């Protein structure tokens, strides 16, 4: 079974990356003593669902403190060698990590690294991403954090054919088109 990023969380993350000019970003969700990537800007699909200890890296600091973090890490900062950035082989020159959650608990972290324009993330970036992280926190609280299952074309076609039996006008044309497409492929 393959999984794709959750579209709601991906849109929230993309908004934060675009608004701040970050080169990389990911949204992590707390699961027990781990942080799990649920949305990412990385092209490698293996990053989605990657797990890191909830106490490591910049995101781990944000989970434990409940406070945003914006900084330019020094060379010896061991948090640079931990977390998702380390898994990707990235040594960030600037980091912005903001907690996501509700008034009761931190349920995740929106983490951005390497502002493309160079230099550190600004106070305005922190304020903006904090607002965006609030949206992510609401999505997480509503249970919209799971990756979305990507069905095989054959299974999708079978599902559409089954639906066409219950609502022929709506699904028959789509099912026929998809069937013809699969037959040609």
Task: Describe the SSE topology.
Elements: E1 2-4, H1 7-20, E2 22-31, E3 34-40, E4 51-53, H2 57-65, E5 69-71, H3 83-87, E6 95-101, E7 106-115, H4 123-141, E8 148-150, H5 153-166, H6 168-184
Antiparallel strand pairs: 1-8, 2-3, 2-7, 3-4, 5-6, 6-7
Helix pairs in contact: 1-4, 5-6
Your description of this structure?
It is a single chain. The protein is of the alpha+beta class. 42% of the residues lie in helices and 25% in strands. It has six helices and eight strands. The strands form two sheets. It has a six-stranded antiparallel sheet, sandwiched between helices. Strands 1-8 form a two-stranded antiparallel ribbon. Helix 1 (7-20) runs antiparallel to helix 4 (123-141) and helix 5 (153-166) runs antiparallel to helix 6.
